[in-house]
Specification:
By secondary structure, the protein is an alpha/beta fold. 47% of the residues lie in helices and 14% in strands. It contains 13 helices and ten strands. The protein has helices spanning 28-36, 59-62, 85-93, 123-128, 140-150, 171-183, 185-192, 203-213, 217-235, 242-266, 269-277, 280-292, 303-328; strands at 7-9, 20-22, 43-47, 51-53, 70-79, 103-104, 118-122, 154-165, 200-201, 337-338. The strands form three sheets. Strands 3, 4, 5, 6, 7 and 8 form a six-stranded mixed sheet that branches. A two-stranded parallel sheet has the order 1-2. The protein has a two-stranded parallel ribbon with strand order 9-10. Helix 6 (171-183) packs parallel to helix 13, helix 8 (203-213) packs antiparallel against helix 9 (217-235) and helix 11 (269-277) packs across helix 12.
Length: 344
């Protein structure tokens, strides 16, 4: 069956012309699996009901399938332009927007997952995997992409193709969505281990930032400097100039700090914020973490309003992570990954 396949996932008013209809909502995974069962083409494109394809969105994705190892490609999912504060915020910080740069998708990579709000997949590979996991109400798209990669398939992100996504109607709806996203971390951690880690850093970066948090800035700087000095010797056989190696090492420590700051205010906040607020070094860490969250702020939005919006966004996500961890009796989605081996 070619053309569009519409699946009605338990709508109060039945959708006319739907190829499949659920009597009650069963979630996006079940709806997509129902749609795949009606497809006989080699490729299937998933588009959520709140997504509008832009002209020419499909062609850049199709070229990737000339490589037989490619199983899935996603376009850029941008929030629909609008004048409200919520629409402007989502235009910059939508969790569905993976940015303007193409990437190979893999856990721990620059683009570590893809949303299936818009996704082009080889139907045969999808069926071999058993489709989407219908036990997951949230995170079913992340799970699918990681299973594809684990199965030896290639997954790519191609922002030359673009679709627009309609954001939630108001802030309470957006915050409920973020809470739901957070609850998926525990089930994903049980399936995929450290791929869900809220922060990834080397043992030396962890030691340096731990010393800083303990109020020992001298030790923190000494550890950072010592490890930065070692990297030029390690990279010299590869022909990397010493100043470049030193810059990489220092930027690695800074990047680790930014990642820890984000995790502190986003994933760990229910425990981290009260603990840090009780000491002067901790309050300094919180201030630096909040400052780092100003990244991406539009020029016409003041820093106070922007920080309030970002923190309001972070809170329900982190609460969802903790709720999911308690519900699934696992601490895995809360644990950082400490390793000096890069993700491959």
């Amino acid at each position: 069956m070619g053309g569009a396949v519409v699946v009605d996932d338990g709508s109060a008013t039945p959708v006319e012309g739907a190829a499949a209809r659920h009597f009650s909502p069963r979630g996006p995974a079940a709806a997509r699996n129902a749609g795949v069962r009606s497809v006989t083409t080699d490729l299937v494109a998933f588009l959520d009901a709140d997504v509008v394809p832009r002209p020419g969105w499909l062609e850049p994705l199709l070229t990737h399938f000339e490589d037989p190892e490619v199983a899935a490609v996603a376009p850029r999912v941008r929030s629909r332009p609008g004048g409200s504060a919520l629409e402007r915020y989502e235009r910059v910080r939508s969790p569905l927007d993976m940015g303007p740069v193409p990437a190979e998708v893999r856990p721990g990579g620059r683009v570590g997952h893809l949303p299936t709000a818009a996704l082009l997949v080889r139907a045969s590979v999808l069926r071999e995997l058993g489709g989407f996991d219908e036990r997951l109400r949230f995170g079913e798209d992340v799970d699918l992409v990681w299973r594809l990669v684990a199965g030896g398939h290639r997954v790519r992100y191609e922002p030359a193709g673009e679709v627009w996504h309609r954001p939630r109607s108001d802030w309470p709806a957006l915050l409920r969505q973020r809470f739901g996203y957070g609850t998926s971390a525990a089930p994903l951690a049980l399936r995929h281990g450290t791929a869900v880690a809220p922060a990834r850093l080397s043992p030396w970066s962890a030691a340096s930032w731990a010393a800083a948090l303990a109020g020992r800035p001298g030790i923190a700087l000494a550890v950072a400097a010592a490890t930065a000095a070692r990297l030029p010797h390690k990279l010299a056989p590869a022909g990397v100039p010493g100043p470049v190696s030193l810059g990489l090492a220092l930027s690695g420590h800074v990047g680790a700090g930014r990642m820890l700051g984000e995790a502190t205010l986003r994933t760990w906040w229910p425990a981290a914020v009260p603990l840090l607020a009780a000491s002067r070094p901790g309050r300094t860490v919180l201030a630096l973490a909040a400052f780092s969250r100003l990244h991406g702020r539009p020029r016409d939005v003041g820093p106070v309003r922007w920080s309030a919006a970002v923190l309001a966004d972070d809170r329900p996500y982190g609460a969802g992570v903790w709720w999911g961890a308690l519900r699934n009796r696992t601490a895995r989605p809360l644990l950082p990954r400490i390793t000096d081996r890069p993700d491959r």
